[in-house]
């Protein structure tokens, strides 16, 4: 099993304070989520493999590098959408798939209502993104879907996680590396992360 990595950085801590604050309005919330996603991406992509490419500078030939594998960003709808742009800014060649899930009110299970991916998932590095890793149910389901599509190298990227969500995800998919900006105290009886930041989707899109 891979240990969850909590990426501590002064800028990330500062920006987490902004999105946790209930006084922060939609525009600043959205921009800051995107910025944190970019900062996380910088750290996470340290492990990506490179391939050599010969190019010519204005002076001479030289060996340069480019990413070896395709990167596919997969937001879980809808809150995951808030992290896409921040990641794409750093990896403009990345393709974007989407997963939409709803909760079956009888069984409480996460069910798929939408899934669309680029070709070549098998050989791509897949960044599955969702700001909140709460119960872990939707993340586990999303990874089931990705694995069914052949994805082998899946990395989960979230902003705030709960111990319950991390444990559930590690139990179901021990091969998936988890990256978070913060691991909070617990889930409350309504399934919200404490202290968390409230409903990430509502705060990103100005809904209630
Ligand atoms: N989803 C959210 O948006 N916030 C939580 O605290 C838990 C799940």
UniProtKB/TrEMBL annotation:
Its EC number is 2.4.2.9. 5-phospho-alpha-D-ribose 1-diphosphate binds at residues 78, 103, 130-138, 199. Residues 7-207 form the Phosphoribosyltransferase domain. It holds the Pfam family UPRTase. Uracil binds at residues 193, 198-200. GO terms for cellular component: cytoplasm. SUPFAM superfamilies: PRTase-like. Keywords: Allosteric enzyme, Glycosyltransferase, GTP-binding, Magnesium, Nucleotide-binding, Transferase. It catalyses: UMP + diphosphate = 5-phospho-alpha-D-ribose 1-diphosphate + uracil. One of its GO terms (molecular function) is GTP binding. PANTHER family: ADENINE PHOSPHORIBOSYLTRANSFERASE (PTHR32315), URACIL PHOSPHORIBOSYLTRANSFERASE, CHLOROPLASTIC (PTHR32315:SF4). NCBIfam families: PRK00129.1, upp. This is Uracil phosphoribosyltransferase. It comes from Haploplasma axanthum. The gene is upp.
């Amino acid at each position: 099993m891979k240990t969850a990595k909590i990426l501590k950085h002064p800028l990330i801590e500062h920006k987490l304070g902004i999105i946790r604050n209930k006084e922060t309005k939609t525009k600043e919330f959205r921009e800051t989520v995107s910025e944190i996603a970019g900062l996380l991406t910088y750290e996470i992509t340290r492990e990506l493999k490179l391939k050599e490419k010969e190019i010519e500078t204005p002076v001479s030939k030289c060996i340069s590098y480019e990413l070896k594998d395709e990167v596919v960003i997969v937001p879980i709808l809808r809150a995951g959408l808030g992290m896409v742009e921040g990641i794409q800014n750093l990896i403009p060649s990345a393709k974007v798939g989407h997963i939409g899930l709803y909760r079956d009110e009888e069984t409480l299970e996460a069910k798929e209502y939408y899934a669309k991916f680029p070709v070549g998932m098998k050989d791509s590095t897949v960044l599955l993104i969702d700001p909140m890793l709460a119960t872990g149910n939707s993340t586990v389901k999303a990874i089931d879907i990705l694995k069914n599509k052949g994805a082998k190298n899946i990395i989960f990227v979230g902003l705030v996680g709960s111990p319950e969500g991390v444990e559930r995800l590690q139990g179901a998919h021990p091969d998936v590396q988890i990256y978070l900006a913060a691991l909070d105290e617990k889930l409350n009886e309504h399934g919200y992360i404490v202290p968390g930041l409230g409903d990430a989707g509502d705060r990103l899109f100005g809904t209630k």
